[in-house]
Description:
Elements: E1 4-6, E2 9-11, H1 17-27, E3 29-34, H2 36-41, H3 44-51, E4 54-57, H4 60-68, H5 79-90, E5 95-100, H6 103-116, E6 121-126, H7 133-146, E7 150-154, H8 159-168, E8 174-177, H9 181-185, H10 194-198, H11 202-209, H12 217-228
Amino acid sequence: MQTFLIRNIKVHPFASSDQLISYADSHKGILVAVNAEKVVNAKQTLIDIINSNIGYCDGAGAVKVAHKKGIKNAVRIPGCELWLEIIARFYRTKKFYLIGSTEDVITRTVKKLETEFPGISIVGRRDGYIHSSDDEDRIIEDVANKCPDIVFVAMGSPRQELFMQRLQQVNRAIYQGLGGSFDLYVGNFTRAPKCMQAVGCEWLWRFIAQPTRIRRITSYLKYAWLLYAGKL
Length: 232
């Protein structure tokens, strides 16, 4: 599979989400959404996790770099859509485990999934508030015992990637970090209008919809400067 670098992060330029899902099914590993914030802020530990797994173009900025490097068929694959496409592909044949968000949100997420995907096998779930190493160890043990085929972890980056790396050591599976996707799925907030998605400005909508994120805007501005200055 062809890859390219954004600074020192290895990215797989998939031409479609179907291609990504098929690749993940045959290779297993952690699916990591590569976007402006990760590129600007990732420490070496997170970079190592991405580079030894499957980084994909979640952000429009990552796609722009791919195109500048001559990979014209690379497309943006939003993580908040990808996990549901994975479920749609495999819900009749594979086992799932969900970790993240609050107890209320994860409960509502499971109920909605069971309604939309009748017969789905969710072998485990719990909220993302892990308060001790013992609590974390219990989750890891449960995943090891239940052997899910696909694990979704919605904790925010880099915490979710670090945790998935530990889970990966006890259970070979497809893993995906989801950030706030469970909250989005149950309607706690909404995605950008299609017109903003189409022009690659969904990141800006997040700041409008969630003003508490505004302190993170500097990462996107720095990425934009690096991109248009030809430093990526």
